[in-house]
Amino acid sequence: MKRLPPIVSHQHYEAPLPDRHRFPMGKYGALRRALEAEGVVPDGFVRPDPADAETIGLAHDAAYVEQVFAQSVPKDVERRIGLPIDEGVSRRARSSIGGTLLAARLALEHGLSGSTAGGSHHARRAGGAGFCVFNDVAIAALALHREGAIRRALVVDLDVHQGDGTADILAGEPDLVTLSVHAEKNYPVRKVASDRDVGLPDALEDDAYLGHVAEHVPDLMDRVAPDIVFYNAGVDPHRDDKLGRLALSDEGLWRRDRFVVREARRRGIPLVAVIGGGYGDDADAIGKRHALVFRAMAEWGGEVVARGR
After folding, report:
1. Residue 184 has pLDDT above 60, yes or no
2. How many CB atoms are closer than 10 A to CB 157?
């Protein structure tokens, strides 16, 4: 009998923001509602504990970690992040890291898992940027690697923006490999080289985009032979996204997510999904797009596939 993969979530993934703030915080609740309505979480969500300073310090400078915990981040750093680093946002960042790390552990156990937040890939070692306070994927990969739970990991980042923060933090980690497939002319202007970067032209549509994904994702899965794949399934490549420059449809996102999950499962590689970016005024529409990757995982179930090792 097929078992649905466990999905990690927490009410603290949402934090109050000032009125008319452009970050679509309501998408997290919309995603939870969409997954409940689709029957993907019949036994409910798995609740994470917030990450502690020591764990976060694996990827970030201690002084910056202390500032976020104390809500004393300098105003210029706060402006780069684009969020007020108050109690709610600080708690949200810690909860998101705890969620990604727990989901990664569940993926190692069950084959597939995901968190309904995460993918904060612009946060660099020295500080946050681009709506990202801490880099949850880099922290989780480093934590699992340091404790010996994994030997190698592959980050497959398909958010529309280049994963500069993840590349920065993991640059000196040859066993933790980064792939970023993104709109080349989009944020950030100054990119940090991933192990493999695929910069795409503006307005790319479904088939052409999926051709690039099909060229690079299986190739790196085979070359790296990772013990886990961290999949940033950002939905901002969508044609209606306010901060994207690509032109994918809902169907294109669905095909992409199914492809990445399938390629990992065919190889018996555990995969953990985080939601990454998705921007606009319609939180329900964005939440439904984010739900696609969890539907894709539900198709395959959570059973571990033997890897022959």
Report:
1. yes
2. 26
Q: Which of 118, 125, 121 is nearest to 94 (CA)?
A: 118
CA 183 – CA 277 distance, rounded (Å): 13
Torsion, CA 5, CA 233, CA 89, CA 125, rounded to 10: 110
* Residue 250, φ and ψ in degrees, nearest 5: -60, -40
Closest CA to 272 of 305, 297, 308: 297
- Residue 306, pLDDT > 90, answer no
Considering only CA atoms, which of 272, 299, 301, 275 is closest in space to residue 289?
A: 275
Beta bridge partners of 180: 157, 197
Quickly tell me which residue has 């493999």 as its tokens: 196
Query: How far apart are alpha carbons 146 and 270 in whole angstroms?
Result: 18
Residues 56, 54: Cα–Cα separation, whole Å: 6
Phi, psi (degrees; rounded to nearest 5) at 276 = 60, -150
The mean per-residue pLDDT over the stretch 279-307 comes to 85
Map residue 116 onto helix, strand or coil: coil
Beta partners for 199?
A: 182
- One-character DSSP codes across 150-196: -S-EEEEE-SSS--HHHHHHTTT-TTEEEEEEEETTSS-SS----SE
- Residue 159's nearest CA partner among 115, 193, 209 is 209
User: Could you report the per-residue pLDDT of 248-272, keeping only the tens digit for each?
Assistant: 999 999 999 999 999 999 999 999 9
pTM above 0.85? Answer: yes
Of all residues in the chain, what percent carry a pLDDT higher than 90? 94
